[in-house]
Design goal:
Layout lengths: L4 H17 L4 E4 L2 H8 L3 H4 L2 E6 L2 E7 L12 E6 L11 H4 L4 E4 L6 H11 L3 E3 L4 H7 L3 H29 L5 H14 L10 E4 L21 E7 L2 E2 L2 E2 L2 E7 L6 H20 L6 H14 L10 E3 L7 E5 L24 E4 L2 E4 L3 E4 L2 E5 L4 E3 L9 E3 L1
Parallel strand pairs: 1-5, 3-4, 5-6, 11-19
Antiparallel strand pairs: 1-2, 2-3, 7-8, 8-11, 9-10, 12-13, 14-17, 15-16, 17-18
């Protein structure tokens, strides 16, 4: 199911508005992830496509191998290059329509091409403003947010089905990997387009590291276990990312996991308190790091969270610490991005104990004008018991 054309139009129009408000020039979009974000094309196609976005029009550009795969987006023209010049890029002069300024998305654009563009295209000015598209991707549009809410509902309903119906019916004969496969199948039955990342489903000591081994034999669900489930779905050009804990066979959380839960929930609350507009994302990461140190643990287990919800499950901003005294150098991929309304980040500090397992939950927070909204609040963060 491709991204809806109205979502792609919204994204392109936001780029055009930013160009009108800023450089008032055309932009060459070259990074595969940005091409995919604006066009909805598949990853295998993204590296061989570009977009030329002007303040008042847009053109999808690729070569003759992909003629039958050019996306149909209202208001976006198409151009097949390679017929007039062996270097391809000089043909963009046909599309600039006399324009003398070009903004470049340099990720995915070879430096020698970037340096040659002024001569190739008879330009007076080229520029590559840092983070120009990164910022637009971080802040979700209205249609995008509507679709993300729909995707969250699918993810929640799928998880509830697995806990309320699938596990009681299958636990005695199934494995944790059977659970993972059934979770993905049920998500697709409810409208998802598959996993937004390889799901993590691990029990007990298998879950004692943030990225457990999943290329293994399944472990039987029968008996008493504590299971971590980290899953997400693609849906109409957007995605989700959540984590919940399931307790199998126990009537209450084992004592060692109770202690892990107390710490994890305290860290999660500290991170959430920093997810407000106007604060750098690294402050939430620092809250996790300081909480871990206060518990007598030398080093935190992973980042506190990351941007998500758009075309890709792991996006900016990074919610990781930036200790005092370190410089972020203004690089757009750093942690020092200031949170703004419309950004979505995960909150996912975890507690891990070698040889025992983990306690970690993860939710999706939408930054609002006065704080944040828990997009998946309908699915409790408390552990789910299947006795």
């Amino acid at each position: 199911m491709p991204a809806p054309t109205e979502l792609l139009q919204e994204r392109i129009q936001r780029v055009q508005q930013a160009l009108r408000n800023g450089p008032n020039a055309s932009m060459l979009v070259a990074a595969p992830e940005n091409v995919g974000w604006l066009s909805g094309i598949a990853p295998d196609f993204q590296k061989d496509a570009k977009l030329l976005v002007a303040p008042d029009r847009a053109v999808f550009v690729t070569d003759g191998r992909y003629t039958n795969r050019v996306p149909e987006i209202p208001g976006v023209d198409s151009y097949i290059w390679g017929e007039q010049h062996p270097h391809l890029y000089p043909e963009l002069k046909n599309l600039l329509d006399g324009g003398k300024k070009l903004v470049c998305d340099t990720t995915g654009l070879p430096i020698d091409i970037y340096e040659a563009l002024p001569r190739m295209l008879d330009l007076d000015e080229t520029s590559a403003p840092s983070g120009f598209l990164d910022r637009l991707r971080m802040i979700k549009g209205d249609r995008e947010l509507d679709l993300i809410r729909e995707a969250v509902t699918i993810a929640i309903d799928t998880f509830r089905y697995m806990v309320d119906e699938w596990l009681p019916a299958n636990r005695e004969s199934a494995t944790d990997l059977d659970f993972r496969d059934a979770l993905l199948a049920e998500g697709e039955r409810r409208g998802s387009e598959g996993a937004s990342f390889a799901p993590l489903v691990a029990m007990d000591a298998d879950a004692d590291t943030p990225h457990p081994e999943m290329e293994r034999d399944g472990r039987p669900l029968a008996g008493e276990h504590v299971m971590l489930v980290d899953w997400g779905f693609f849906y109409k050009g957007v995605c989700t990312d959540m984590t919940r804990m399931i307790v199998l066979g126990h009537s209450e959380l084992p004592q060692i996991h109770q202690g892990m839960r107390l710490l994890q929930e305290k860290w999660m609350a500290a991170v959430a308190a920093e997810i407000v507009p106007g604060k750098p994302a690294y402050e939430a990461g620092n809250a996790y790091r300081l909480g871990v140190k206060a518990a007598g643990i030398e080093q935190r287990f992973h980042g506190a969270g990351h941007g998500t919800g758009g075309a890709y499950v792991h996006e900016l901003p990074k919610v990781s610490e930036l200790p005092e005294g370190l410089d972020d150098y203004g690089i757009p991929f750093s942690q020092a991005i200031v949170l703004e309304p419309g950004m979505i980040v995960t909150n996912e500090p975890g507690m891990y104990e070698k040889g025992v397992g983990a306690y970690r939950t993860e939710n999706m927070l939408l930054v609002t004008e006065d704080g944040h909204e828990e997009l998946d609040a309908a699915l409790p963060l408390e552990p789910f018991f299947v006795v």
